[in-house]
Every structure is written in C-alpha cells, then in structure tokens.
Design brief:
The structure holds two protein chains of two kinds. By secondary structure, chain A is mainly α. Chain A has one domain: Up-down Bundle (Fumarate Reductase Cytochrome B subunit). Chain A has eight helices and three strands. In chain A, helix 1 packs antiparallel against helix 2. Chain A is elongated, with a radius of gyration of 20 Å. Chain B is of the alpha+beta class. Chain B folds into two domains: about 110 residues, no CATH class; about 180 residues, no CATH class. Helices cover about 30% and strands about 10% of the residues of chain B. In chain B, strands 1, 2, 3, 4 and 5 form a five-stranded mixed β-sheet that branches. In chain B, helix 8 packs across helix 9. About 0% of the residues of chain B have low confidence. The interface between A and B is large, with 47 and 54 residues.
C-alpha cells in the first residue's frame, strides 16, 4: 500500500439513498416482471394480482427516483455532464486504456489507470455504460411502463407507436438489457483493491484513495 | 341457442300442427304483416318492426304467426288483442337459468332482448354485446366498482363484453374486429365501422378481401401480417376481445374469473383459436376462422391484442434470454481469468 492513503468522500447521501432504493426497486421489478410474464412457472410473489400491484408500485418508485436523481445531478449538484458524459479525450484514448486494463493489465496485476474523485467518479467505460443506461434504457423502460399501466387512456398514442405488442416487446427487451447489466455491475464492483471496497463506498460514501498527486476540490481527509 | 330435446320435439310438433291446420292464419306470411308493421308511417312505437333487422334473426325463420298466433279477423281494428308467445315457450332452459339470477327481479327477457332484433352470439362483433348491459350499468360507474379489485379496470371494461366474466360459460374464444379511425386527428380513437364504411374502403369488393387476399374464407397469419403492415390500410386496425363460447344466462361472476391467471396465463386452447368478425349488410356479423396461434404471433399478427402472461411471444423470450445471458459473460469469463491470474495481484 502507498504511504499516503487518503479518504475521498465519493458518494454523497442523496446518491447513496437513490442507489439502494433503485437497487431494491429494480430487483423487485425483475422478479415481479418475471412472474407477470411467466405466471405458470413463477409464483414467488403470491397471486398474479399482487405481482402486478408490486410491479406497478416498484416501477412508480423507480421512475420517481430516476426523476429525482436527474434533477439532483442537473440542478443541485450541477455535475451531470461532467460525471456522466464522456469527454473527447475519454473517447479517443480513455476507452481503450480502460478496456486494456480490464481485459489485459488487470490480469497482470497492474493498477487501475482511473482514480475516482467526486468530480470524476467514473472511468471512460463506466461513463459510456451509464450514459446508455441512465439516459436511454432507464427513461425508455419507465416510459413504456407508464404507457403499459395506462393502456386505455393512452390508446391513441400507443397505436401511433405501432401498437401494444411493439410497446410490450420494447419494455420487455429493455428490461432484459437492464437485468443483463446487473451481474456485470455487481461483478465490476468487486474489482477494487479488495472485493468489498467499492460496495462499502456505496454504503458509507468514503473511498480509500492512494494517489496523492491527483488532488481534488472535493472533501479529502488525509490519515 | 341451447334447447333441450323435449323442447325441440314440442317446437317441431307445434310447427307441423300449424302447417297442417286449415287455419286462415296460415295464409298469412311475415311479408303481409311487415307491409304495415315495417312502415313507421302506418304504425308507431314498439309496433314498428325493422324488416331488414328482423330478417337476420332466428325468429324470422319461424315467421310472425308462430308467436302471434291469435289475430282477430278485424285486425288491425276491433277489440281483440293480438296474442304473444312468451319467451319461455321455447327458451325454457335459458329462461329458468335466468330466473335464478338477481337480474330477473329487475329485467324481463324483453328488456334486454328485442325478439324482433335478437341475434345469435356468433352474429355479433363482441363489443356490441355490452349495448344492452350499459342501459342499466353505466360504464364509468362499472369502472369505479371494478377498480376496487381489478387492475386496469378501465381497460377491462372497455375491451371485454360483460358476459365474458359474468357467465356460466367456462370457455371463451377470441374474436377480432376491423376497427377504423374515427377522424383525421393523430390520436383519434378507433371505432367499429359499419358495413357501408368498410365496403367503401374495399372499393366495393367483399369486405373480407381486405384481409383474406387468397379468397379461401380463411385468415392465415401471413395475411394478418400483410394487412397490419399495409400502408394502404393505416386507418384500419384489428382489435380483439374474448367472448364466451357458450350461451348462458347465469350472470353471476364465476369464482375463477377473480383469479387473473384464468385468462392471463399461456396455454389454454381458446387462445390458439380466434375468429374474425366481418360486418354484414343486414347489420350482423359473420365469423371467419383464423389460423391457430394468430394472437401469439410476435408483433404483426395482432399488433393491438396483447394479454400479459398469455400472448407472450416465444421468439421474444429467446432474444430476452440471450440478452440476459450476455450479462453473464463478464462475471463468468472475466471471473475465470481473474481466478487463474490471482497470484499476479498479490502485492
């Protein structure tokens, strides 16, 4: 371990609350969604009606929490573009450098080239992935879900979009993409210096950082 | 209509008796009656019989005098009241079934079924089955009542005939209808068009030819897809509903209808079978068989008919499974290499 270890306050409380609320919501949505689609095989949540009510409630909570998250980053933290949108440099060299780490140098025992700071939390690959998830998948899956819970009043719009089956298929396939992201997401959190390091950070907010060269304006506590 | 065997024997005997009896009444044809009763200028109120509608009913085959067998010689003048058969004379099984319901205290047969207009179930579009129910049970109020326990009550009330759940019929079947855009507005609603409207869309040809391009009186999934993707028919769509397979007048809700999975589960044979209801000139409908599994087609077979848990597409399930499996590549593949190279990271 390096001599100068410092702690960085990486995940503020609103972000952590949002993250764990979302985690619970998305797992609930996945399980209840599976029961709604395959009722003859999955009866984990009791009756079909309770699965539907739970799915609708969890969907509403996640959509609301997504909206709060969006407004928090855009208007309160004002760091949405900085954190989530890859910069030109990220795309030109960052992506390749990070991919090289994940798929080659990590196995050789090299350090992660990215050091998270409150203003630059994500590496270029994370930025690209979260950009797709948070700006494309999540809004679309929420929107299609809202349409599906209001089929009768929104019939005209649904027809214009191509019909109920297209809407249903889009909702289902987007949900599958988000479910596919879960194992990758959980696995990548274990790639810190210890398997639990990143997970603890999302719980406590603080992350150990060893590179003192990368000073940041964020709250830093040497110890 | 369901009639028991003794009923049929009685009915046939009655018809023969009428046929053989040298009664001046028998000389009377329905046409004779309709000369006056089919003309609103000559009679009024409930005495007016719309001849074209009456002709489509099963009662028209019997003729007026079977039910109105005692007509005074001085008809239409004089004091002799024209006799009327009661519904139970023929429909005694259904009638007794109905008399056991709470409805019987509030409505007699004629309050829902005008004998001069009544059609068999297979001659109805499906959506039109509710026209009688809403005379007493206002739709919005029904939505409010059903909302207490039924998810998407507004959708269920709008899309299903009441008797699909409020029935003694255990089985149901799918009926598809051609619906047309109400007006030119983008979000315009789609309504059941009448015969004339669809006749104009099909340029005077048989309405069925809009979908049944091969002309074999059978709708294949390929023909359904072609219809749904045809830009010429973008003002038309196919809607579907579930109707009971058997006629029943037991109007209480079957217990199993409270279990969502009675309908929302894959597999029942009834979901493989569907029919297309084509409007006829006389205001009724005829049913045309549709290829098995049409509503289970992934997207374009019936793009507006989807029942969660029931009409899921197998091909979509496979794509979904492949996507989710893709999410395991990183943990499994990377994890394996990580395990094999773990010594490199022991600083």
């Amino acid at each position: 371990m390096a001599e100068h270890t410092k702690k960085v306050y990486l995940q503020p409380i609103p972000v952590r609350i949002w993250h764990w609320l979302n985690a619970l919501g998305i797992v609930t949505l996945a399980v209840s969604g599976a029961q709604i689609r395959f009722p003859e095989y999955i009866t984990l949540l009791g009756s079909y009606k309770s699965a539907i009510y739970l799915h609708n409630t969890a969907g509403f909570v996640v959509a609301l929490s997504f909206t709060l998250w969006f407004f928090y980053y855009v208007f309160i933290a004002r760091s949405m573009a900085n954190i989530y949108v890859p910069k030109a440099e990220d795309l030109k060299t960052g992506l390749l450098r990070q991919a090289k780490f994940y798929f080659l140098t990590y196995f050789l025992g090299w350090e992660n080239p990215h050091h998270p700071t409150p203003k630059n939390k994500f590496n270029p690959m994370q930025k690209s992935a979260y950009l797709a998830i948070m700006f494309v998948l999540m809004p679309l899956v929420s929107l299609t879900g809202i349409f599906l819970t209001n089929v009768e009043p929104l019939r005209g719009v649904i027809v214009m979009m191509g019909g109920l089956k297209i809407l249903m298929s889009v909702h289902f396939l987007l949900a599958c993409c988000l479910i596919a992201f879960l194992p990758t997401h959980v696995y990548l959190t274990t790639l810190g210096r210890t398997p639990m390091e990143h997970i603890k950070t999302m719980w406590t907010g603080w992350e150990d950082e060893i590179d003192v060269a990368e000073e940041d304006e964020g709250r830093v506590a040497l110890h | 209509m369901n009639r028991s065997y003794p009923d049929k024997v009685l009915l046939v005997a009655f018809l023969w008796a009428l046929l053989l009896a040298p009664c001046p009444l028998m000389a009377m044809e329905s046409e004779d009656c309709l000369m006056c009763h089919g003309d609103a200028d000559m009679v009024s109120g409930s005495l007016v019989i719309e001849p074209r509608t009456f002709d489509t009913t099963a009662h028209a085959i019997l003729g007026c005098v079977v039910c109105h067998d005692a007509i005074g010689d001085d008809h239409p003048g004089g004091s002799t009241k024209t006799s009327r058969a009661t519904c139970l004379d023929c429909h005694d099984s259904l009638g007794h079934e109905y008399q056991m319901t709470t409805h019987a205290a509030y409505a007699s047969c004629g309050d829902c079924h005008n004998p001069h207009e009544a059609r068999g179930m297979k001659e109805m579009a499906g959506y039109d089955m509710n026209t009688k129910c809403v005379q007493c049970h206002e739709s919005q109020m029904m939505v409010e009542i059903h909302k207490e326990w039924l998810p998407q009550a507004d959708l269920h009330i709008a899309k299903l005939p009441c008797i699909t759940c409020h029935t003694g019929s255990q089985r149901y079947e799918i009926v598809l209808n051609i619906v047309a855009k109400e007006n030119d507005r983008i979000f315009s609603r789609y309504e059941l068009p009448d015969y004339q409207t669809l006749k104009e869309v099909s340029d005077g040809r048989d309405i069925l030819s809009l979908i049944d391009t091969s002309g074999d009186d059978f709708i294949s999934i390929k023909e359904l897809r072609h219809f749904n993707l045809n830009p010429e028919y973008k003002e038309l769509r196919l809607e579907g509903t579930l109707v009971p397979s058997d006629v029943s007048h037991q109007l209480s809700t079957l217990d199993n209808r409270y279990d969502c999975t009675f309908c929302h589960v894959s597999g029942p044979q009834s979901l493989q079978t569907s029919f297309l209801a084509i409007p006829k000139q006389d205001g009724g409908y005829r049913r045309v068989a549709v290829e098995q599994g049409a509503v289970l087609d992934a997207v374009y077979g019936t793009p507006d008919f989807y029942m969660i848990g029931t009409t899921r597409s197998a091909s979509m399930n496979i794509i979904g499974l492949l996507i989710i499996s893709g999410g395991l590549v990183m943990p499994v593949g990377h994890g394996l290499l990580r395990f094999l190279t773990r010594k490199n990271r022991q600083h």
